[in-house]
Amino acid sequence: MIDALIQGTLYKVPQARTASNGRRFATANVRTPTKDGTAIFVSVIAFAESAVTALLALEDGDAVALAGELTPKIYTPRDGGEPRPSIDLLAHRVLTEYHVARKRKAVAEAKALEHPTPTPAATETAPAEFDDPIPF
After folding, report:
1. Phi-psi bin for 37: left (phi > 0), alpha (psi -120 to 50), beta?
2. What confidence tens digit (pLDDT) does each residue in 66-78 have?
3. Among residues 86, 47, 100, 89, which one has the least CA distance to residue 66?
4. Which of 33, 44, 49, 121 has its CA 20 to 30 A from that of 129?
5. CB contact at 8 A, 6 and 32
6. Can you give 35-98 as a three-state secondary structure string?
7. Rounded distance between C-alpha atoms, residue 58 and residue 128, angstroms
């Protein structure tokens, strides 16, 4: 088993499936860029409920990062073409732009509670001249 964190964009809409035991899972394909400008397609399957829900909320082309168990393979096309690398990922966690924005907001709110910004005191005005008949 290889623990991995991959990122890329969804290729097609993730699919909801149901196993023979009635348990829900999701499958997806992620196009992951490589340093030479090409891409590797990662076949993703998720059984963790939070990962399934997050995957199914996404659409084709959405950016995503996934953490899980990676299995490298070699794909040989049926037409006898050149063998290519293939990767399967059993996703345990899914991170999307929504999750990043939500996390940043939560961190900012926590920092604000930890170190509140001083608010200006109620506007203090100079005491008004008294119209007092008693001379001092």
Report:
1. left
2. 999 999 999 888 8
3. 89
4. 121
5. yes
6. CCCCEEEEEEEECCHHHHHHHHCCCCCCEEEEEEEEEEEEECCCCCCCCEEEEEEEEEEEEEHH
7. 64
Find the CATH number of the domain harbouring 56: 2.40.50.140
Residue 34, both tokens: 């490589």
In a domain, 37, yes or no: yes
Is residue 128 domain-resident?
A: no
pTM of the model: 0.69
Nearest to 91 by CA among 7, 19, 23: 7
Domain count, the chain: 1
In a domain, 26, yes or no: yes
What is the CB neighbour count within 10 angstroms for residue 59? 9
Q: For residues 68 and 74, what is the distance between their CA atoms, to the nearest angstrom?
A: 19
Domain boundaries, position 51: 2-89
**Quick check: is 44 in a domain?**
yes
